[in-house]
Write a structure and sequence with these properties.
alpha+beta, six-stranded mixed beta sheet
Length: 103
């Protein structure tokens, strides 16, 4: 059974379940370590993911590879973030993201 992976980027802690990360990598082709990059993209969009027994957030932004990802997370207080899932955006999500930053 997989345990939690702790990953630190720029003094920010990211945590995820190793089994879930392996499944998401196989299904969506996105590693959770790449998903961490979205948090440091200057124009990321953060939205309430809602509908769960915990406060979840959806982060949308680009990675260093130039991929626009949608990452579902839970904030770990002042400590960091738990990554729940990560995938490339759908065409509609890309359109919404780009409309939001069209200035």
């Amino acid at each position: 059974m997989g345990g939690d992976v702790h990953h630190v980027v720029r003094d920010c802690l990211f945590v995820w379940n190793s089994e879930k990360a392996a499944g998401k990598l196989k299904k969506h082709g996105v590693s959770f370590s790449e998903a961490c990059e979205v948090f440091f993209f200057p124009y990321y969009r953060m939205e309430d993911a809602g509908g769960y027994n915990e406060e979840r957030w959806t982060m949308t932004g680009y990675t260093m590879r130039g991929r626009l990802l949608r990452v579902v997370t839970v904030e770990l207080g002042d400590v960091g973030w738990r990554i729940i899932s990560a995938r490339e955006v759908t065409p509609r999500e890309r359109e919404r993201y780009e409309e939001g930053y069209d200035t």
